[in-house]
Structure formats: C-alpha cells, structure tokens
Amino acid sequence: RAKQAERGSVARYNRGVSEEIRGRVNLLHNLRGAFGANELFLVFQPQIDLATGRCVGAEALLRWRTGDGAMIPPDRFIPLAERSGLIVSIGEWVLRRACEEAARMARAGHASVRMAVNVSVIQFRDPHFLGRLRAAIEDSGVSPRQIELEITESVAMGEGDRMIELFGRVKAMGLDIAIDDFGTGFSSLSQLQRMNVDRLKIDRAFINDIGGAGKGGDIAGLVCGLGDRLGIELIAEGIEQAEQAGRLQAMGCQLGQGYHFARPMPAEDWRAWLAAHSSGSGAQGGC
Ligand code: C2E
Ligand code: MG
Ligand code: MG
Ligand code: MG
C-alpha cells in the first residue's frame, strides 16, 4: 500500500511539474505578445540622500499589465525572459525608455538626478550590448553621466575578469555602475576593488533585519564598513521605516530607497513627485 501511495504521489508530482512547465511556456508566449502590444512599462522609485532628504536619483523598474488588467511581477517574468533570450530586446527597450525619461528630467531642470537601470547578465554578455547602450544614449540625447547600470552581485562576481573589462568600458563612456543585491553573493574583496564600481546596493533582506530597539543590522553594518574602506558609496534598498533610515545613516550609508520614501511610480506621477520634492526642503519620507 505504501508503494501505491508513493506511485500516486509521484504521478501527482509529475502532473504538477508538467503543469508548471506548461504554465511557463504559456507565460512566455504571452510575454512575447505583451512586449509587442506595449503592455510593458516602467515605474520609477526615488533614491534619497539620507543626510539631506533630497532626491538624487530613481530606479527604473519594469512592469507588465496584461490586457485584462492583471499585474505580473518582474520576479515571475524576468527569469523566463532571461532563459528564452527575450530579455535582450526587452532590456534594450528598458534602456531606451529609461534614457528618454532621464533626458526629459534634465530638460525639466533635474540634470543631476540619476536614472538607475537594471541590466540582466544575459543582456550584458550580448556582444552588441555596448553598441546598443551607446545608441540608446545618443538617440535620447541624455548625458551618460546621468545613467547608472545596476548589475546583481552574483552575476558581477561570477563573470570574473570579463566583467571587469566590460565595467571599464561602460565607465569610460561616463556611466555609473552599481552592484545590486549586495551581500547575497560572495564577492571577493580584491575583485570588488578592481571593479571600480560607484555604488553598492545593500540587499533588502539586510535592511529588513534592522528592527526596532536597535536590533539587527549586523550585515548592513559590515557592508557599510566595507564601502567606507573601499571608498564606494552605499545605497540601502527596501527602507520601510524611519528607524531603519536613521540607523543606516548612522552606519555610514549615504543613500536610501524604499516605501518609507516613496513607492515606484508610473512616469507621470514620478515627474510630478520630482517637481514637488526638488524645490527647497527636499523629500521628507512617507508616501
Ligand atoms: P531589484 O533591482 O533589487 O529592485 C528592488 C525591488 O524592491 C523592486 O521590486 C522594488 O519595487 C522593491 N522595493 C522597493 N522598495 C521596497 C520596500 O520598501 N519594501 C519592499 N518590500 N520592496 C521594495 P520589483 O519592482 O518587483 O522588481 C523585482 C526585481 O526584478 C528587481 O529587483 C530586479 O532584479 C528585477 N527587475 C525589475 N525591473 C527590471 C528590468 O528592467 N530589467 C531587469 N533585468 N530586471 C528588472
Ligand atoms: Mg535594482
Ligand atoms: Mg536590488
Ligand atoms: Mg533586491
């Protein structure tokens, strides 16, 4: 009987797996269609100078709203887009759209507000990446100094010397580079130093860790010490409480991003937000 039960659960498992695969194939098919049908769009989340409260940048984040109004989170469709290679064209579109928005910000008088763009490793490895990046910048008329590329730590480190060379070329064009989700990978310190990146983005998990009554934050503290020693600016992602912002600032973290300051916003809301928060007093938290 035990054998039978086992067989039954294996069959159920197999059915579960094939359903999951079918689901993914379906989603990928829909994603291709969505990309063609302009169902993808960007939202923008402010990045704040913790000392002054001023907005120094925004991160562009991809969204997919299907024809029937459902929102599919990037964590679900980006891995699919990566596995199928579709991320190369989607990523190029993201870059172009983000550069256009940054150029628009500059025209509105916010030339010093950076635009951070997530770049997938698949995209980065593509032999045409640098050419596409240059074209996106030239066509939009944005200053490359206004653009920052975010690359996740695991990826940046896994690729070794090739990444260092590529980073060098991107930096030579005038862009900034940030290492995303920092603290979750296994950076070698020497590699980190040679990469010459501009910013480390402390992963949300470690910010989450910073609770009330002075608890947690050990890893965030370590990363801040590291950034300080290497002369790399720090930005914390996922700040949800004033308390966390305060503790991070005390640890030497310069910048922050999170629901405490503002949620990611569609372009029109972001433009209005920026206009409202750039005059005088700066951003005051809460959203
Ligand atoms: P990420 O680059 O680490 O982006 C930060 C994520 O944290 C975003 O999730 C953002 O909405 C969320 N977040 C920001 N503040 C808070 C907060 O205070 N609390 C909480 N709980 N979450 C916060 P999102 O937009 O769902 O994106 C998830 C991931 O998808 C991103 O992580 C990034 O890895 C990827 N992604 C998003 N857009 C793109 C893109 O255009 N290209 C590529 N290659 N990846 C993207
Ligand atoms: Mg990011
Ligand atoms: Mg991140
Ligand atoms: Mg993250």
TrEMBL record:
<protein>
    <submittedName>
        <fullName>EAL domain-containing protein</fullName>
    </submittedName>
</protein>
<feature type="domain" description="EAL">
    <location>
        <begin position="24"/>
        <end position="278"/>
    </location>
</feature>
